[in-house]
Amino acid sequence: MSMEKRVKYKSSVKDRGTLGSLKISEVMLLFVPNDPKSDLKLKVQTHNIKSQKYTKQGSNKPPWLNLTNKQGRSHIFEFENYPDMHACRDFITKALAKCDEESNKSVVSTPSEQLSMAEFELRFKLLRENSELQKLHKQFVESKVLTEDEFWSTRKKLLGKYSIRKSKQQMGLKSMMVSGIKPSSDGRTNRVTFTLTSEIIFQIFAEKPAVRQAFIDYVPKKMTEKDFWTKYFRAEYLYSTKNTAEAAEDEELAVFLKPDEILAREARQKMRRVDPTLDMDADQGDDYTHLMDHGIQRDGTNDAVEPQNDQHRRSLLQDLNRHAAVVLEGRCIDVESEETRIVAEALTRAKQVSKANQERLERMSRAAEMEDLQAPQNFPLAPLSIKDPRDYFESQQGNVLSEPRGARASKRNVYEAYGLLKESILEIRMTGLSDPLVKPEVSFEVFSSLTRTISTAKNIIGKNPRESFLDRLPKSTKDEVIHHWTSIQELLRHFWSSYPITTTYLNTKVAKLKDAMSNTYSLLDAMKQSVQSDLRHQVSLLVRSMQQALDAAFQHYESDLQRRTAKIA
Amino acid sequence: MIFKIEDVTVYFPYDNIYPEQYEYMVELKRALDAKGHCLLEMPTGTGKTIALLSLITSYRLSRPDSPIKLVYCTRTVHEMEKTLGELKLLHDYQVRHLGAQAMILAIGLSSRKNLCVNTKVLAAENRDSVDAACRKRTASWVRALSTENPNVELCDYFENYEKAADNALLPPGVYTLEDLRAFGKNRGWCPYFLARHMVQFANVIVYSYQYLLDPKVAGIISKELQKESVVVFDEAHNIDNVCIEALSVSVRRVTLEGANRNLNKIRQEIDRFKATDAGRLRAEYNRLVEGLALRGDLSGSDQWLANPALPHDILKEAVPGNIRRAEHFVHVLRRLLQYLGVRLDTENVEKESPVSFVSSLNSQAGIEQKTLKFCYDRLQSLMLTLEITDTDEFLPIQTVCDFATLVGTYARGFSIIIEPYDERMPHIPDPILQLSCHDASLAIKPVFDRFQSVVITSGTLSPIDLYPRLLSFTPVVSRSFKMSMTRDCICPMVLTRGSDQLPVSTKFDMRSDPGVVRNYGKLLVEMVSIVPDGVVCFFVSYSYMDGIIATWNETGILKEIMQQKLVFIETQDVVETTLALDNYRRACDCGRGAVFFSVARGKVAEGIDFDRHYGRLVVMYGVPFQYTLSKILRARLEYLHDTFQIKEGDFLTFDALRQAAQCVGRVIRSKADYGMMIFADKRYSRHDKRSKLPGWILSHLRDAHLNLSTDMAIHIAREFLRKMAQPYDKAGTMGRKTLLTQEDLEKMAETGVQDMAY
Fold it and tell me: Carries keyword 4Fe-4S (chain B) (predicted)?
């Protein structure tokens, strides 16, 4: 994995800079100046980079990326455009994360890593979002059983993925057409009012490059932004009423109604990279019956369409296609600006059609194959960005609990809900169908208790008869059991991963863990004693497996200790 | 896998094979052995193309002493690319197993527009202007001129190609158009002329129908193909239409005006030549006296479209004396234009046979039939003599001469129809004089005569006995294959009513009924919310689609659809449609899914596949009948009735249903694929309509699915999709093998059991 970008390198802010290309690979950055005589070649090892800063998009500064190495020297790179810079930045961030991981692996004994502010914030955010994690963190880190880094090192994935994904995922566009914006009127006069949000403006600009260009040309030199939009909607209105004669007279109105030149140019560009198995334009260039007046004209297969006058060829169908294309493309710029002009300019810059020839050919050869006549191929899987289903159920449970009526309902269990349902079915049987079919209260009851059942079932991994028993426990006991289970898991994970013990650091860590585990062991015992006698058997069954796991750990600890002391002796 | 069919070892690039592919190969081999023509119908989604290619290439390998050539005709350029893609796969496999002896040369051939690499020529807008721009740089007289005048611009690619002369050859391999362009650019040779030159050496040629069927194109491109060629027409269900189109010409007012302008230009040129180079005109005259219509030694770059009449109908005699002199010929053409102008001035529809047209032309304008016949050749000769390169400017006069030649050559199977306006738009005067061919067998006859085997194949050739009659040939093999299904992976349904039980139809009196439009819309709204990935809708015509989408937009139905999926639409602008299709595919790829609106007789229905996730549901709105009041269609129906005793209604239904079947058939590509097909019109529930559908659809159309309302269809769709999501055994169950391995085939060969699958 590596990438190459054209940049200007500056050793300080004041420096005029040297043109050249920047090659980034996972291990190092390499700057090669365009001028071969210049000796400004630069090599930076990725693990040497301490931090990176960059200019915000939308500010009037050029896209700069400032890298500071561990010795405190800084290198500034000026990119040609923002997307380039962002791509590089992302790349370096990922490379850094990888470096971090590697260095952590190799030197576990030096746990006190310098934490960047961002990472700290991320951890804090994760803790805030996940109460379970927070509890564990509190229990172990604050009681010094585990250090901060030890705690997080088992959750690297969580941190890494989150940080990368969060920065990548962008909001999509609405599927509604721009022409669907309906004005509000005050009812008395003929005046109508359009409410434009930045999203709508973005969409108009993206779908109609001519309007975007007109905006850049006219505002604010010729008219104010408000005038511009008034004109725009007036043109749209005239277009919808097919009253285009008036528009043709007004030069500025005509701009909005002309066939879009920029769009046509873009289309030509895009045609070059479409899949050749879809390219119907190539047909038109091939088929000799389409020679003028050759072939059959009016046999009813070809459609008769009224010749439209050229100026207003724009049709609803074209608008629909254009709209869908824009929605599919999504927000291609990440400018969060209220300033319309900045949005317009950013869009103009972002509209560069990338060449994807290789990918196109690959896709074609894949399409030529018949999939079920050969052994299955394993295509790379794209990760789905789906939220944890538990979140949904938990939020549902929260809703039920927070409502005043729900407080009563939560006491009822599934059987009561079932009873209610049964009752109403009986009633239907006796009295026939009534309207509504099922009383709302009943259905609500059934629904909420079902949700709760599903959510609790989801909380525990696996399915065996013991779990259903969990529901019968008082909530406090249940929570306690679950909490113990998760904390034991956490401790055991750290415990087993510390073996074989090679350093003193690991030795002390294991000792600490063992203490914490024996602590939990006694807590489990205490809990077993405290529960009501009718539930005690079941709870002890639950607890037993946890204790067995802990016992195994203790045993290993003892034997290992013995072996090591014997060795020393 | 490698297996034997009788004495031929077949190299098939996959590990498994469908039983019907195997059967298909067996039948095809028999036809090749018998050196005869064949007609094979096999459902879409059973890998026809690859079966065909691998059998024919393997057949070639097994007969090294008499190598056959494969001429593969597709309807469109994108199908050509698809075929070449499959051939590449096959070729790689064969070379891997056999080494150098399996190497073949396969090329795709297209027009200058698609093959040119000269950026200045490509800047021209359409095909005709690209042709002209090319000719301006490559015509022999232009190149001769450039030796004296260095300012004359030539094409470097063509010059390099000419310099390389006979050394300009393509190394063996499979070349798509893109590959040809890349090769040409790399070597600095013109890919177009290189490809045309390679036609005689190539083992496989892939090009579109017109290159064989249209005499104008075939005359220059396919002239030198040897008899030992196998010609394949793939997706040939519309082949009769291509045939009659190839021989039809029409003349409009603009054509006449353009032709008059052309004549003025020609007149000026003649005068100029008379003043400066009178010898040249005299030389032409002498040549014509000797009976040579055309100089025999034309270089490739000078060739223009060939004679519109079929090769065996072209007279091999001297050009009549009255048009040998250039100015006399111009006079004759002027009179012809005048006469046509008068005929166009009619207020009523007129229908005439070529014979009576020619005789009235003779009596009123004094032009004889024989003169007419030679119009094309005479014009061609004149344009070469006058060294005219901007051929795109001279299209109108070319058209008129084509018309004259055809009308002078053919006495039957044609009719001339003059209409003052389009029937559907009577308020717009647009007079047109059409010479339309009714007999599809005319154009294809030379192909049947010339080549030893012609294979006509498609997914829908039902009723299969109709095609030999329409094209008048006798196939040695004519078979329709069934599809052996591993599971019921297609689900055809006939929807006759909306949820409100009102009938739906695109019958003329019902189609604009708001109830029908609403019910059609609601059907789609419901469907897009339950069907994953791609949904395709076909409408009966552009104008109907335009109207219905506008209504859906006003009533908010479109908005509801867009909440579920993105909407892409086929328009009459091919560039826009291509981009819409490309976007549609990308939308399906990214998992969001989309809806594509298309037209049953449009460009998309003709050759774009909506396989796999690109199409899980096809809705066919209405029955795609032709516009039955069309005069030309009427004339054709009459002809069919008189010559083949085919009833009008039968032919119309046959034509509409093959169109519909073609549309819905595009969803299936393999047996692992699945898709639903909804025929949304009450007329499909009638037996006489439905029974014209191909067997592989009918066999899945259950009685319970013949008369559905929207809500019932939704229910069935849900069930079907759930069933399709379950895992299944690909090899087939219960003794019915639907996927054969090498072992199975060997066992079959031993026991001689042929019909294991059925």
Answer: yes
